[in-house]
């Protein structure tokens, strides 16, 4: 039963995350032999590792990994006895191999007009977004899928909590806050992308102030300001959002470090 091979190829073409579940060891009586595989996506499972509670638990583990974006191999041992609701009496070990395309982790600071326009585009992309603002009233009543709302008076803590290689987009209502966030992001030195909304005049002002705070010219040079694809013109929130989203797509398309 090699249907999982075709399903895996199709998932890879679509960039769909999946988990390959393999029986890697068997002792005593087991419902399937070593090497049996099952491919699990968020919506379906292809092939079987024997059914029953063993398969039920394996599906639950695989889908939890998909939901959490867990890319770490996992090995679980299952005794096929009364506790698992199966009467085979043997034991089997199951390898969970996540095949999850990398998804950029994005921290978007600012829930103003541009932030609201941008987050609706980011929600349609293969990324995870933490949307940060201290003003609860600025957020919409319902969050787009894949977007985590952060009503936060201490946004610098969000910067510190993001994993290495994260993308940072700063477009708050407060220039002083923008500067504090820029300093914190650049001190990390490991952003996959850092974009700051503003003009060339704002950039020059920030370059000077960041230099006074000990941020090197090399670090400041990684800051995208003005941000967004330069060929996308216009000052409407939707136009700026499209330009920024295009730059994000270009960045993760070439592996970050944009």
Could you walk me through the main structural features you see in this protein, from its secondary elements to its overall organization?
The chain is α/β, with parallel strands linked by helices and 258 residues long. The chain has two domains: 97 residues, no CATH class; 149 residues, NAD(P)-binding Rossmann-like Domain (Rossmann fold, 3-Layer(aba) Sandwich). 36% of the residues lie in helices and 21% in strands. The chain is built from eight helices and ten strands. The chain has a five-stranded antiparallel β-sheet. A five-stranded parallel β-sheet has the order 8-7-6-9-10, with helices on both faces. Helix 3 packs across helix 8 and helix 4 packs parallel to helix 5. The longest helix has 17 residues.
The number of helical elements comes to 8
Strand order across the largest sheet = 3-2-1-5-4
Superfamily at the CATH H level of the largest domain? NAD(P)-binding Rossmann-like Domain
- The secondary-structure element order is HEEEHEEEHEEHEHEHHH
Which residue ranges are poorly predicted, with pLDDT under 50 across at least 5 consecutive positions? none
CATH architecture of the largest domain: 3-Layer(aba) Sandwich
Q: Name the CATH class of the largest domain.
A: Alpha Beta
Summarize model confidence as the mean pLDDT: 88
According to DSSP, the number of beta strands is: 10
| Distance from first to last alpha carbon | 44 Å
